[in-house]
Amino acid sequence: MYPMDLKQIIATVQDDFQAVDHEVLRMLDSRVPLIEKIAEYIISSGGKRLRPLIVLLVAKASGYQGNKHIKLATLIEFIHTATLLHDDVVDTSDLRRGRPTANAKWGNAPSVLVGDFLYSRAFENLVHVGDMDIMATISKATSIIAEGEVLQLINVGKPETTEEDYLKVIHGKTATLFEASSLGASFLGGTNPELQDSMQIYGLELGMAFQIIDDVLDYIGNADELGKNVGDDLAEGKPTLPLIKAMEFGSPEQRSLIADAISNANRDHLEPIVSAVRDSGALEYCIELAETKSKNAIRHLMVMPASIYRDCLESIAHIAVQRKN
Asked: What is its EC number (predicted)?
């Protein structure tokens, strides 16, 4: 039966998923029309909403019967959206999910400030959840996410970045919010330390796998499916894992070419660099690493009782490494 597709997974929590949509719209209410306009633009831009979906599924799989998981899922989506707004400004991106970024349409200053608004609204919702363990988890996560973004910024233009450096970055900037989603939701289901530890690892490993594949897709996807241009990370001088491993596995000439492109943040020699990444075995290495992390995530689901919700969480771990966009 695995993996179920995303539509099938959402169908298992359809009412809750729609409740999150309603809560998102309610929480976007502002006296400043531009805030609503920008926030609605990016939130409605076609994202998968995997993180709030994970919240709903973990809560259900843990036996939770209340409705605080709706607020938790909503605030997770707000934090994620805030990071996207800030990321696009930092990266000077002009395309996300096939549409112009908010900063491309309205400018950097409004994008940063609306991101701040979403962060604030997320913590406003967190107060209403009213669980100190969840509050500690989300508060810590936002700090780690910021650290991950700064680490990535430090590594820009540095071809000497190692795989360990890269993993630290994606742990912070991507995997931490997945981890907070699954761990936070597990607290709603009661006091089961084994379950909570397992859900923390599930989210972390899932998030790591998701980001590794995201970076792989930068070299094997197409712009229409990805909503961004192939080689965008290279143009920003980001030493992602496919580039790091291509320098390790490739010829001296390929290593020099990639290192120069990272140092100067350019796509002038994109075609031979993409060929080097594809031919060196770098992508196969990255995919294998992502699959290992996905399998570890699935293994940690086994502490949960069997249910359709656990099946859905397992399917999400498969989707994370099999997706094309």
From this structure: 2.5.1.90
